[in-house]
Design brief:
The complex is a heterodimer of chains A (about 260) and B (about 220). With about 260 residues, chain A is mainly α. Chain A is built from nine helices and no strands. Chain A has one domain. Chain A is globular. With about 220 residues, chain B is of the alpha/beta class. In chain B, the strands form three sheets. In chain B, strands 6-7-10-3-11-12 form a six-stranded mixed beta sheet. The two termini of chain B are about 25 Å apart. The chains are: A mainly alpha (about 260), B alpha/beta (about 220).
Chain lengths: ~260, ~220
């Protein structure tokens, strides 16, 4: 009887410890940003742009496909069903709340976590195995400055930018679905824009920021936390994506409960 | 008497049980040999405070480096060149960018000055033709040479080499040692070198002023 309870307690304690370690790592990273050497800022900026290239620009086709298909399916179904009830004006709120505010940030963050989070964790873990991190420290370069800060900055920018892409594509894909169901484009934009409030835009932007931090900080933490054995690299990559997904869903839930 | 650039004072090495007390004076090469199990590989990392010994003190340029605040420690390490065992080159950069990295990050030199300096370092280390390769595409010897060029980027007074000759031909090893020492001055070689490893080519022994070996749990001199 005691064993299962103990196992659950052990797991909870480990999860709490992980959240604490992640929070500490994030604070240390932000704190380290205060004293990047002037020349080091140029180097870190180059790393950031390179990461934006991999994380944002190369992910645009995937985000476009996700947004277009999801929005088309939801809006075409909704137009038909709401039309039967004579409540097509609810289509605007559906588009704004479900797609732009909730699913847009959620799916974009999940796509980035799956695509780039694993890559970041695997890359940093490999760097540790190959002795690159110690070589950096020996050269007087803090790995937080060279590896973590640029990646964190890049994932925030990337998730934010990709959410904008997702939402724009979703709105236009929804337009296509609505017009195919007989609605005029003027009517579609009228109900969508009428439903869009400053609160929705702000909430989407805050989600972009928070999800960007999650997708940046967790893979970096997982990648740098290995002890240095090559067999830990795939484990770090897998843990990074699982922890990121859980964190994204938990935060999404908290947003609904606290802010929506 | 000139103070040593690097000094180990009663530092225990992991595994072997030996306690190391030795000094690296300016202009001299000091070598500590030992098997993989002897713990000799830990000495370079103790010297740069990348890890801490269980007891004893390590003095670098007269400072107990492990006691420095983290930020000062990073700046302090730029005064020393370090070639780690296994080279430690960044795999996603070319050899040229690897050599340039410490200068780009830690100096206020212009990009033109950095390029000029790297060109000289690459030529000195004999890898000018291979500079645009990534580490994974280069041979062990070329990678070791590139890592040495990177270690010498700030033209340090002291160079620490971890297992530098492993797998190299005698000729390549001799060239590496010559470049690391930086030529002769009136007082000896321009740079002091501290090396650890499992073996050294016999032909190079005469070029190394002090040699030690960690064996049977103790530091033996002059072997």
């Amino acid at each position: 009887m005691a064993a299962p309870v103990s196992a659950v307690g052990h797991r909870v304690a480990r999860s709490v410890a992980l959240v604490g370690a992640l929070a500490r790592f994030l604070v240390e990273t932000i704190w380290a940003a205060r004293w990047v050497p002037r020349a080091g800022r140029r180097v870190a900026t180059k790393v950031l742009f390179k990461q934006v290239w991999f994380t944002a620009l190369q992910a645009i086709p995937l985000v476009i496909i996700l947004a277009a298909i999801l929005s088309f399916l939801v809006i075409s179904q909704a137009t038909r069903e709401l039309g039967r009830l004579g409540a097509t004006e609810l289509l605007g709120r559906l588009m704004v709340v479900v797609i732009v505010r909730e699913l847009g940030p959620l799916l974009t963050a999940l796509a980035v976590a799956g695509r780039s989070g694993t890559a970041i964790a695997a890359e940093l873990a490999t760097n540790k195995v190959m002795g690159e991190l110690n070589a950096l420290r020996a050269m007087g370069i803090d790995p937080l400055h060279y590896h973590v800060l640029p990646r964190l900055g890049a994932t925030i920018l990337s998730v934010f930018g990709l959410i904008v892409v997702f939402d724009l594509v979703a709105i236009f894909s929804g337009l296509m679905a609505a017009t195919m169901a007989g609605m005029t484009s003027a009517r579609y934009f009228e109900i969508v824009l009428a439903s869009l409030t400053f609160h929705d835009v702000l909430l989407t932007a805050i989600k972009g920021l928070i999800f960007g931090v999650i997708v940046g900080v967790i893979p970096c933490f997982r990648g740098l936390s290995i002890s240095g054995r090559p067999t830990e690299v795939p484990i770090a990559a897998s843990q990074a994506v699982v922890t990121s997904i859980i964190a994204i869903f938990v935060c999404s839930g908290l947003f609904v409960v606290l802010l929506a | 008497m000139t103070p040593p650039l690097l000094a180990f004072e009663d530092v225990p090495v992991p595994g072997g049980g030996a306690r190391v007390t030795l000094e690296v004076p300016p202009h001299q090469a000091v070598l500590v040999l030992g098997s993989e199990a002897s713990g000799v590989d830990a000495l370079p990392s103790f010297a740069l405070a990348l890890s801490s010994p269980a007891a004893g003190r390590v003095l670098l340029f007269g400072e107990e480096i492990a006691r420095l605040p983290y930020r000062s420690l990073l700046a302090f390490r730029r005064r020393v060149g370090y070639l780690p065992a296994g080279d430690g080159l960044l795999q996603n950069l070319t050899l040229r960018d690897n050599v340039a990295l410490p200068l780009r990050y830690g100096s206020d030199l212009s990009e033109r000055e950095i390029k000029g300096r790297i060109g000289i370092m690459l030529a000195q280390c004999g890898i000018a033709d291979a500079a645009d390769l990534r580490p994974a595409d280069a041979t062990d010897e070329v990678r070791r040479r590139a890592a040495l060029a990177r270690a010498l980027a700030f033209d340090p007074q002291l160079v620490i080499l971890g297992d530098p000759f492993d797998g190299l031909t005698v000729r390549a090893a001799a060239h590496l040692l010559d470049v690391a020492r930086g030529g002769e001055t009136g007082e000896g070689a321009r740079r002091a070198v501290f090396m650890t490893g499992q073996q050294v080519p016999t032909r190079l022994e005469s070029r190394i002023e002090s040699r030690y070996r960690i064996a049977q749990g103790e530091l033996q001199t002059g072997t």
